[in-house]
Amino acid sequence: MSEATAASRDTAADAAEQGAPAGELADRLEAHRTELTGYCYRMLGSAFEAEDAVQETMVRAWRSYDRFEGRASLRSWLYRIATNVCLDLLKGSRRRARPMDLASPSSVDTPVGAGLPEATWIGPVPDERVLASAGDPAEAAVARESVRLAFISALQRLAPRQRAVLILREVLSWSASEVAELLGSSVASVNSALQRARATLAASGDTAGEPPRPLDDAQQALLGRYVDAFERFDMDALTALLHEDSTLSMPPYALWLRGREDILKWLRGPGHGCEGSHLVAVAAANGRPAFGQYRADGEPWAIQVIDTADGRITALNSFLDTERLFPLFGLPLRYGGQAEEA
Asked: Which residue numbers delimit the SnoaL-like domain (predicted)?
């Protein structure tokens, strides 16, 4: 049994003791879990912290439901609780980042160095954990764009309350008055925070781009060629697939590379251990295609999140925390093995 399931069971028991309609309330709360996880992920930059924050939100909702007077919708009330949980978690914490946020590109000869703590990094998340189903294709595209790794990184540059305002207003399309009520603030204060947040993102150059379209036949073919070339470790084939300004990053290491030439040199040199790897497609991550990479000996090596544009691969985002990430994506901890039950 997962920790989240156990916690839900315990809080259901608490609610039953307090006379709350446990089954009905559980269903009503669970209906909001995915969108709340998406909100907390945008706020915190970590799938694991987001799930913890949502579980804490559910616990607080269970325990205070008898004081919920219905003056706002249940959804708005849950977002208020989740916002407070996230703001508490962000007090005094260092903002999460990507390797390219911390330093200039490395060279092929740069030592990899020691890995930095997990709390340093923005981590990947399966789309299914954070993107609630949307009937409108345009809304679904905007939602996928709002969990893009670069945009999550941009959000971390904002002060926590500005971050909440920007997400609620520009991603979730709340009105200024709704956000003001949630934050216990004024409309003027919310509008001012939004303007400052927009200015910060504009100055950094990290703003939400054009919403991605669902993968078409050409993009699917590009990914198929990438898998074939990577598994054969065919550098000539990879040359034809990588954009000349593509990037490679590998948290928890701060080292990252920019440029097709350097990436290929690195794969031929320090990265030669990737030869013979197997790539297993997983559900999309951060609105992008993703794969689990296993080394030739069957050991897990990375979750790869792939960015593409104009028929080329523009970024290889490899996340090496396999012990936690492979189960998150439903992958076994050995190639050809059985995935552990969540």
From this structure: 225-314
d(Cα 96, Cα 112) in Å, to the nearest integer?
20
Angle 169-174-175 from CA coordinates, rounded to 5°: 95
Q: What are the counts of helices (DSSP H) followed by strands (DSSP E) for the chain?
A: 16, 6
Report how far residue 188's alpha carbon sits from residue 190's, in angstroms, rounded to the nearest whole number. Answer: 5
Q: Where are the CATH 3.10.450.50 domain residues in the chain?
A: 217-328
Q: Does CATH number 1.10.8 belong to domain 3-90? A: no
Q: Which CATH architecture has domain 217-328?
A: Roll (3.10)
Is 259 in a helix, a strand, or coil? coil
Sheet (strand 312-319) strand order? 256-258, 242-249, 312-319, 300-309, 288-294, 278-285
pTM of the model: 0.90
Residue 141, both tokens: 């595209």
Residue partners of 250: CB distance under 8 A and separation at least 6: 99, 256, 302, 318, 319, 320
Per-residue model confidence as pLDDT tens digits over 178-229? 999 999 999 999 999 999 999 999 887 765 444 555 567 888 999 999 999 9
Q: Closest by alpha carbon to 90, among 18, 19, 162, 144?
A: 162
Beta bridge partners of 306: 316
Q: Is the peptide bond before 252 cis (omega within 30 degrees of 0)?
A: yes
